Each structure stands twice: as structure tokens, then as C-alpha cells.
């Protein structure tokens, strides 16, 4: 099922390689963290799907607002994700949780479960590279956002050269 949703999201992205590469990288890191953190099968499925569709609203936001700010992505993405996932065979409660995560993937307050925490961490692992973030920003996120042992270890390993500098 995840493979079919991946293909559907790639098709939905209409050749936007930057967006496709972003969600595929986030998906890979989240899958790694989720497995290292021993998520149960249902939570891992929710996380897998959420990572694939978390930025589904970017094209709409750019067209509608002229920007893809995080708050706008959250506002528009929740509804888009629900619509996108209809007919995929996912249970309604899975779709609801994925939509919730999409609607909160830039929100670091109130994190209520491992799926949300890992989505934040995996997205940041990719965003830190794409945004060429400096040592101070990475250290701040490590201290104030990262909570999982596995995500923190990946951040330290991936950005070891930046953190040493």
C-alpha cells in the first residue's frame, strides 16, 4: 500500500523533482527512525504515509498565496491529504491521523505521539541540508526539537562536520 501511495504522490507532483526528492528523503529518514525506535506496525504505517504527503500543499500554497510558508501548508495540507488518500484502502482513522500530522508538520508544540515527533525530526534532517543551516541552528533544533534517541543520533552523525566547525 505504501508503494502505491508513493507512486500516486510522485504522479501528483507532476515532475517537481525538488518536491519528490524532499518527500522521499523525509520518508527514508522517518522509516529508519521509526524502525530504530521500534514503532508498532500501525504507527509506522501512519508515519510512512504522512511523510509522503506532508508537503502536498506546497504547489497550491505557491499558486494561491505566492508563498509556501509552513502555516499555510498546514492549513491547506490537512484537507488535501484527506482527499488525496480517499480510495487508497487506508482505514478512516489512519487517514484522519495522517491528515492531522500534515496539518501539524511545522508545529513543535503539543506533540502527542511518536509519529508526530519522528515526522518533525525526519523533515528537519532534510531541511537542515536543503537550507544549509549553520551550527547554531542545528544545535538549537537538537536541544529544543529532537526527542528520539535515533533521530538525535542521526542528526549528530549527519551534521558532525558542521557541528565540529
Could you say how many structural domains there are in total?
Answer: 1
The helix tally amounts to 10
Average pLDDT: 97
In angstroms, what is the radius of gyration? 15 Å
Biggest sheet layout: none
What fold name goes in the CATH topology slot? Hypothetical protein af1432
Show unreliable segments: none
Shape field: globular
What do we call the CATH homologous superfamily?
Answer: Hypothetical protein af1432
**What is the percentage of strand-forming residues?**
under 5%
Overall CATH class: Mainly Alpha
Helix content: over 70%
Order of helices and strands: HHHHHHHHHH
CATH architecture: Orthogonal Bundle
Ends distance: 43 Å
Q: How would you portray this structure in words?
A:
The chain has helices spanning 2-12, 17-36, 41-53, 58-65, 70-85, 92-102, 114-130, 135-144, 149-158, 160-164. It is an all-alpha fold and 165 residues long. It has one domain: Hypothetical protein af1432. It is globular, with a radius of gyration of 15 Å.
Outline the secondary-structure elements:
Blueprint: H1 2-12, H2 17-36, H3 41-53, H4 58-65, H5 70-85, H6 92-102, H7 114-130, H8 135-144, H9 149-158, H10 160-164
Amino acid at each position: 500500500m505504501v508503494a502505491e501511495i508513493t507512486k500516486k504522490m510522485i504522479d501528483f507532483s507532476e515532475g517537481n523533482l525538488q518536491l519528490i526528492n524532499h518527500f522521499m528523503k523525509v520518508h527514508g529518514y522517518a522509516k529508519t527512525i521509526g524502525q530504530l525506535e521500534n514503532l508498532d506496525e500501525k504507527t509506522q504505517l501512519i508515519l510512512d504515509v504522512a511523510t509522503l504527503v506532508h508537503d502536498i500543499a506546497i504547489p497550491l500554497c505557491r499558486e494561491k498565496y505566492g508563498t509556501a510558508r509552513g502555516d499555510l501548508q498546514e492549513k491547506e495540507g490537512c484537507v488535501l491529504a484527506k482527499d488525496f488518500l480517499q480510495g487508497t484502502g487506508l482505514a478512516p482513522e489512519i487517514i484522519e491521523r495522517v491528515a492531522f500530522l500534515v496539518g501539524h508538520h511545522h508545529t513543535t508544540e503539543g506533540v502527542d505521539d511518536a509519529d508526530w515527533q519522528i515526522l518533525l525530526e525526519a523533515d528537519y534532517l532534510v531541511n537542515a541540508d536543503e537550507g544549509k543551516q549553520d551550527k547554531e541552528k542545528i544545535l538549537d533544533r537538537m536541544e529544543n526539537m529532537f526527542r528520539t534517541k535515533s533521530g538525535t543520533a542521526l542528526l549528530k552523525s549527519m551534521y558532525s562536520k558542521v557541528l565540529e566547525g
